[in-house]
Amino acid sequence: MDCIFCKIIDGSIPSRKIYEDEEVLAFHDIQPAAAQHALIIPKKHIATMNDVQAEDWQLIGSVHRAAQIVAKELGVAESGYRLINNCGKDGGQVVFHIHYHLLGGEKLGPLHARS
After folding, report:
1. Where are the beta strands (DSSP E) in the chain?
2. What is the Cα–Cα distance from 73 to 61, expressed in whole angstroms?
3. How far apart are CA 88 and CA 54, in angstroms?
4. Average model confidence (pLDDT) for the chain?
5. Does the active-site annotation cover 99?
6. Catalytic site residue from 28, 45, 64, 99
7. Cα 5–chain centre separation
8. pLDDT, position 110
9. Which terminus, N or C, of the chain has the lesser number of Cβ atoms within 10 Å?
């Protein structure tokens, strides 16, 4: 498999880890879009949110639990943060291994509806 996140999980590509357990890995994004920008990924390869199956629901819960831990570790849990999952090409997904961006550490702009 030629998945960059799978290679980060197996250690063949280095990362600056923030959190890791048996199911989830979180690390600093190499192109941060905010003062604090972490990527949180399940260790199981799932391409997109649309590919999540019933047997993966607990895993997705573990990813969200890891987001809480990472937010505390990065010092943004109290001030606030944004947790984003891009799904599919039109949704802005670039790496097709489900992942969440945790952004914080500064005041983030509002998301506006298209007029």
Report:
1. 17-20, 24-28, 36-42, 81-84, 100-104
2. 19
3. 20
4. 96
5. yes
6. 99
7. 11
8. 87
9. C
State CA 63 to chain mean position distance: 8
- Which two three-digit tokens encode residue 24? 């989830």
Q: What sign does the CA torsion over 56, 99, 70, 12 have?
A: positive
Residues 25 and 9: beta-carbon distance below 8 Å:
yes
pLDDT digits (tens, 9 = 90+) for 20-73: 999 999 999 999 999 999 999 999 999 999 999 999 999 999 999 999 999 999
Phi/psi-derived region of residue 33, left when phi > 0, alpha when psi is between -120 and 50, beta in every other case? alpha
| pLDDT at 115 (0 to 100) | 65
The enclosing H or E element of 65 equals helix 57-73
Encoded tokens for 52: 């999540």
Q: What is the pLDDT of residues 65-97, one digit of tens each?
A: 999 999 999 999 999 999 999 999 999 999 999
- The identity of residue 14, as a single letter, is P
7 close to 1: Cβ distance less than 8 angstroms: no
